[in-house]
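User: I'm curious whether this sequence folds into something compact or stays loose and floppy. Could you predict its structure so I can see for myself?
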Amino acid sequence: MQEAAAAQPGAKTHYRSSATRGAPEGALGQAELDLLTFFLDDGAAGGELDSLGRWLRDFEDRATAVGLSLNRGKCRLSVGPGATIPEALQGIETCPLDEIQHLGVPCGSPEKMRVFVEEAAKGAERKMRMIASLPDAHVALTLLKFCAGFVSVVHLMRAVGAVFDFAGIDLATQSCLATITGIETDASAWALASLPVRLGGLGLHSCADTAAIAHIAATFDGEACLSSLVTPYVLPHAMLLDEDDTFLASLEDPRLAPYDSVLEKIQNVLQARDNYGGRGQKVWSATVHDERRKALIISMTEELGRSGQLQGSALALKQVQIRARIQSCSGQHASAWLYGNAEADPRLWLSPAELAVAIRLRLGLPIAPTPSICRLCGTGSADVDGVHARSCFSGGRRTRMHNALRDVIADFARRGLLAPAVERPVFSNTERKRPDISYVRDGTTVVLDVAVTFPLQPSNPQYAKRAAEKPGGAATAYATAVKEGKYRGIIDNEPNPREWLAVPLVVDTFGAWCPGALTELRQIARKSALREDRTASAACQDFFHQLSFQVRG
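Assistant: Here's the prediction. I'll summarize afterward.
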């Protein structure tokens, strides 16, 4: 069997990744086998056909002696073309080597592997076309993220790596997004969309950029698991990955070349300088995504300068705004609205028009074909990027957003039995200051002041600079400059000022909260979870989804 496998180049990966030594002296049958491994009642034996026959006969004799029997109908024998089956192996269904599968993918033959992966890719593309035809755009986008595209072929990437070009899946995903939202993304916008949600993208990961890492990690994962699966009779060989064409193709994939830190970690594992701790695909992909985002921001800002559309301070401000937007979208819980919540109120799903606008704002795409005069204030220029639309105080949008956030927070505080008071006088020395929400928690009167700020407002470029530095930077700057001192003097004049706590709950219009707000909001969610018999994690997810929905870009 080993000789037959060696004659099939496509089978090399399968056997190299699970190679074992022959059974030592005194092992069952004392046969010279090249592969003998069991997990519970499932096993695999490999070697020359005569050796396999002798081992199987001895195995069945020993099983019969203890009252057991081997069901040959459930066994499979993989042999090369033209092999003569010995009598001891007669009656076992044969399976050609070129049909051997790894993770459901035929890996014994390069041609069969190519045909199989192509058919699977076509199936994934058909699924995306069906999803794109759904009438509910927000539900369709959620299905695209969690049920199609990258997630539907990740097992293929782990099996074949960079040998197969998965760019067609990426193109189908981009086309599906365009059909769902009506948005044709340019190269920069699609590069951003393919980044994880935590980095300001849409989480529609690129298969072509991930295939090599997926296969390398799968190979290491298999080697790490081998020692826990083999029987005491066998010991694992060191993998001869330098002879594995599929592995080498992934290792030498040009898409990995820019990421020296990832390649160094892989080489350290190969050369046994580092122990492979598992989770390689997730850890290495995260590093690649971080580097890709840095490069993308630089590329977008440099392209803006080369276009010549803006000059001087206007160009500098726009470049800062690009970084600020992506950073704000990366804030904790800022993107909770993006893929809905199965347990949430059905009204918390966006209409197709609302979704299209929100996605455009997130990706930095224009929301209107040409500038116009703002219909609300009648004086401002409504630019195509929506900067004026989100900073205009006319029309009451900002007030409605503030009140909606206040009401959601008060509702969760009420569900946590905190008995919140909404816009009521709570200070003994004045009735003029009425905080948005107040309640008593663990003997401390907590005063909450809700505020929404727009990090890209041209009138205050400092907010954009702070937002560009870290997620929630604009919200933190607004809380420090405006909100923190609002109640300080009043609380200092209370009889017991130490029993009071004022917390600014500031969020920017991309959904990023200031750190103090996140801490207090999580405490409210935990209180509600205790009273509603659910986990704190589920309560936080529900809470921040509702808050994020009210802001959403």
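Summary: The longest strand covers residues 444-453. The two ends are 61 Å apart (CA to CA).
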